[in-house]
Design goal:
- The protein is of the alpha/beta class.
- It folds into two domains: 3-145, P-loop containing nucleotide triphosphate hydrolases (Rossmann fold), CATH 3.40.50.300; 147-205, Wheat Germ Agglutinin (Isolectin 2), domain 1, CATH 3.30.60.
- Helix content is 19%, strand content 27%.
- It has helices at 24-37, 75-81, 100-110, 132-138, and strands at residues 12-18, 42-47, 58-60, 66-68, 70-72, 88-92, 114-119, 141-145, 147-148, 155-156, 158-163, 166-167, 181-186.
- The structure holds adenosine-5'-diphosphate (ADP) and zinc ion (ZN).
- Adenosine-5'-diphosphate binds next to helix 1 and strand 9.
Length: 205
């Protein structure tokens, strides 16, 4: 196979799911770096909505390693910026994208590309986030990573949203703009959500 040619039936989809701080970006970058070592043509996209650790043009991880990424906020923008010669397409923060990413990932994989998508699979309530459930279903490979619960040290599977240091209410928006909130990795046991204002009822447990 000459460089730049594709194994037309060799595409697949990989999803790296898990809570914040579980190492999804690190894992995505590791796979991207290894693809570069294998001399693959690689393109990295990252949703606009997240620029916690570095500039929006870079896929950042907590340990400071970075790979250049194209900032996008819709599937259409990925489609418009796609390099037709790219063999590996990586997308970080896929939970913020529209459902169209599922069809695009499938179509790229059908055309021989390796598609790697990293994203938080659950929102601050512990409920499915954006297109992640569908992406996990159509993927050939799914890895679900865990962080460490900051309260008790158990494997963390929930994103704890804190507003002014207090757990967010259930009716708080799924995506907050402005960054007034903070997040912690927590286990199921230590994860807390305050009831929605309207109901005025306490959680069952
Ligand atoms: P993600 O993309 O899943 O948000 P990153 O790859 O950006 O995660 O960061 C993972 C790194 O975050 C870990 O290697 C570790 O150094 C750091 N970290 C900070 N808080 C935690 C935590 N509570 N549990 C695990 N890792 C944490
Ligand atoms: Zn815990």
């Amino acid at each position: 196979m000459t460089s730049g040619s594709f194994q037309l039936n060799g595409g697949w989809i990989e999803v790296i799911a898990g809570v914040m701080f579980s190492g999804k970006s690190e894992e995505l970058i590791r796979r991207v770096r290894r693809s570069l070592i294998a001399r693959k043509r690689v393109q990295v996209f990252k949703s606009h909505l997240d620029n916690r650790y570095s500039g929006v043009y870079t896929v950042g991880s907590h340990d400071g390693r970075t790979v250049e990424a194209v900032p996008v906020d819709s599937t259409e923008q990925i489609a418009l910026r796609l390099d037709p010669m790219a063999q590996v397409i990586a997308v970080d923060e896929a939970q913020f994208l529209d459902i169209g990413i599922v069809a695009l990932a499938n179509s790229l994989a059908n055309r021989g590309r390796r598609v790697i998508l990293a994203g938080t699979d659950t929102d601050f309530r512990g409920e499915p986030f954006g297109p992640m459930p569908q992406l996990m279903c159509v993927a050939e490979v799914v890895d679900k990573l865990h962080a460490i619960c900051v309260m008790c040290g158990a494997p963390a599977t929930r994103n704890q949203r804190l507003i002014d240091g207090k757990p967010a209410r259930y009716d708080s928006p799924q995506v907050m703009v402005g960054g007034a909130e903070a997040y912690e990795a927590r286990c199921r046991n230590c994860h807390k959500i305050l009831p929605a204002e309207e109901s005025g009822t306490l959680p069952l447990f």
